Amino acid sequence: MDNVSVLGPAVLTVTTTTVTLNSGSSNPSAYGDSLSFDVAVDPVTAIGGTVELFDSGTGGTLIGTGVLLDGACTITTSALAADRNE
């Protein structure tokens, strides 16, 4: 006989993610400049894992990843598209 596992409803926690330009980065910046973004996820107790940062260009290109430590990380990239990124 095969073993069967039944999972109950998952408990979801609402989180808020905030991304801000690190104060050490130039603003405005020129194409190719290295920029750092501070990422914070709240509530901290529900957080672990990684964060992926995408630009707002066509297709949303992955431009960096960071590992959360106590609900926060900094992602540095020089791969932003030459356009307005929001």
Describe the 3D structure.
With 86 residues, the chain is mostly beta strands. It has one domain (16-77). It is 0% helix and 36% strand. The chain contains no helices and 5 strands. The protein has strands at 16-21, 35-42, 50-54, 62-67, 72-77. The strands form 2 sheets. It has a 3-stranded antiparallel beta sheet, with no helix packed on it. A two-stranded antiparallel sheet has the order 3-4. A hairpin with a 7-residue loop joins strand 3 and strand 4 (62-67). The protein is elongated. The N and C termini lie far apart (54 Å). The relative contact order is 0.23. The mean pLDDT is 80.
Relevant terms:
86 residues; mainly beta; three-stranded antiparallel beta sheet; two-stranded antiparallel ribbon; 5 strands; 0% helix; elongated
Brief summary of the model shown:
This protein has 86 residues and is mainly β. The protein has strands spanning 16-21, 35-42, 50-54, 62-67, 72-77. The chain is 0% helix and 36% strand.
Class inferred from helices and paired strands: mainly beta
Helix content: under 10%
Q: Strands of the largest sheet, in order across it?
A: 1-2-5
* Structural Rg: 17 Å
Beta-strand portion reads: 35-45%
Unreliable runs, pLDDT <50, ≥5 residues?
A: none
Overall structural domain count: 1
Mind summarizing the main beta sheet? 3 strands, antiparallel
Report mean pLDDT, rounded to a whole number. 80
Distance between the termini: 54 Å
Number of helical regions:
0
